[in-house]
Input
Amino acid sequence: MFKKFVKGILIVMLAIGVNASNVGSADAASIVMWGKTELKLGQIGKVTISVNTPLVKLNNDGSIITVRTLKQGEEFRVYSYKNNHGGLYGVGGGSFVKKDNKAKYETPSKSKLALLKEISENPEPTPQPSQPSVEEGLEVISGAPSTFKNCTALKEYYPDGVQKGHPAYASKHDRDKDGWACEPSWR
Output
């Protein structure tokens, strides 16, 4: 029990140290935040959920099915719009939010779009480590989810995967059971 406690304290201290060392880094300047979400290329707007509302998918016959309930205050990127069922905002992954008073739709400002375009056309080179260390597998990215549906989703935040003990580690993502989830083939 004591060993688990000490291990937990070390992980937290490591995460705090890594986050503190990243303050003011070039990476922070290479993203455009819009409210609680990062503005991405291809995004046409965002919806902010004002009252709990369903996230839906379209069936092949054109009917809709509820996937889960979105909570008040959550924000989602919008990538498309369909006129079906009174209007549907496409939030990615084949999922939609119905156009109604439960979801406030907004478009990004021209200045945010111009900044995103500038960053995407002139990206800052990010140095790649020659040989990753164990500590990198424990780095926690502020604002990143702690659970992921699959390795593709996890690698959006942690391209090199995560080590056992990391909040995002899940054994289902560790195919070779070596203590690293979603690691690249070179690891």
